[in-house]
Amino acid sequence: MSDIDIRPTDAPHGALRPSETNPPHRILVVDDEPNIRLTMIGMLSRSGYDVDAVKDGADAWGALQVKHYDLLITDNNMPKVSGVELLQRLQANRQAMPVIMATGSLPKEDFSHSPWLQPFAILLKPFTVAELLEKVQASLPARDGTRTRLDFLPILECQTS
């Protein structure tokens, strides 16, 4: 995935370039594989997004406490804190934001036991540039502040029996 040639024209149809009145969306990328992180930074930056990237879920949680992001793109299987654990922390702290899980293995068991943890979108590795950019554009709010989907990360009360 790291040898993909990304050009600015690869941006999804209708993607807006940043300006003073139209600042770029901020995206946090979390992946323990350096080549994947660098590739996603390149893809997203060239498409007009403001991108930060970290190597694991613990660093991601720290970044989320310091800076506002419009979107979180995370792997699941990582050291320290997994993608599912990040979703749980967001829920517990009532931090609603769209999450794209870009992973090599889907945590079906976690999602079946906790359906409210479902991310906005799932990208199974390997994925294409077009697939990533399509999911990113669909998950972000429109420039007029409206959302393309309701409640990206619903805050639900979990009842135990």
Helix residue percentage? 25-40%
Order of helices and strands: EHEHEHEHEH
Helix- and strand-based class?
A: alpha/beta
CATH architecture name:
3-Layer(aba) Sandwich
In CATH terms, the superfamily is Response regulator
**Cα Rg:** 15 Å
Shape: globular
Descriptive terms for the model:
globular, Rossmann fold, 161 residues, alpha/beta, 5 helices, 5-stranded parallel β-sheet, disordered N terminus, disordered C terminus
Describe the structure.
By secondary structure, this protein is an alpha/beta fold. The chain has a single domain, classed as 3-Layer(aba) Sandwich (Rossmann fold). It is 31% helix and 14% strand. The chain contains 5 helices and 5 strands, in the order E-H-E-H-E-H-E-H-E-H. Strands 2-1-3-4-5 form a 5-stranded parallel beta sheet, sandwiched between helices. Strand 1 (26-30), helix 1 and strand 2 form a beta-alpha-beta unit. Helix 2 (57-66) packs parallel to helix 3 (83-92). The radius of gyration is 15 Å and the shape is globular. The model is unreliable at 1-19 and 148-161 (pLDDT under 50).
